[in-house]
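Consider the tokenized backbone below.
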């Protein structure tokens, strides 16, 4: 593995991914090259999955998130992204399992967002009480990068929609 080259390609892909407007095609190609250059590095597969997800290539995105999770089973991001991808594909039971795995790994940011995604999947699955439990947790969290207090506001709105006013 050429870690220096892989890092250069990753940075280049991220620059394309976050450009205004994003250049998804070039980002995807850069991230694909990262996975070829460093086939045992989860980061490349995670970012390739993210670019593919952004391009609505859900099946391929899922494959890359799974590979990232296999390579680094302690990185919450891979499981949460995989959950999001599976939820988009309507595979709610698998999405819920992956969200829960990711949340259990204590993501250092975006936990509130992950819990909201989990709650949405639970709600869509008819598991309203479990969704309510997640919304309650989120509603009591402090705002944090990158979403600020938006998840808390959304969780409180969901609770209100289901007739729960006081926590």
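A designed sequence for it:
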């Amino acid at each position: 593995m050429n870690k220096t080259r892989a890092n250069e390609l990753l940075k280049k892909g991220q620059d394309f991914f976050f450009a205004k407007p994003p250049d998804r095609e070039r980002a995807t190609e850069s991230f694909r090259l990262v996975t070829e250059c460093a086939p045992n590095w989860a980061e490349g597969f995670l970012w390739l999955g993210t670019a593919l997800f952004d391009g609505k290539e859900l099946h391929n995105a899922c494959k890359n998130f799974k590979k990232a999770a296999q390579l680094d089973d302690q990185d919450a991001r891979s499981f949460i992204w995989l959950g999001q991808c599976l939820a988009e594909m309507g595979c709610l039971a698998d999405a819920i399992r992956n969200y829960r795995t990711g949340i259990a790994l204590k993501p250092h940011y975006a936990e509130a967002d992950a819990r909201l995604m989990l709650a949405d999947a639970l709600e869509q699955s008819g598991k309203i009480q479990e969704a309510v439990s997640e919304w309650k947790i989120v509603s009591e969290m402090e705002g944090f990068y990158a979403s600020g207090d938006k998840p808390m506001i959304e969780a409180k709105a969901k609770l209100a929609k289901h007739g729960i006013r006081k926590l």
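The chain has two domains: 1-72, 79-167.
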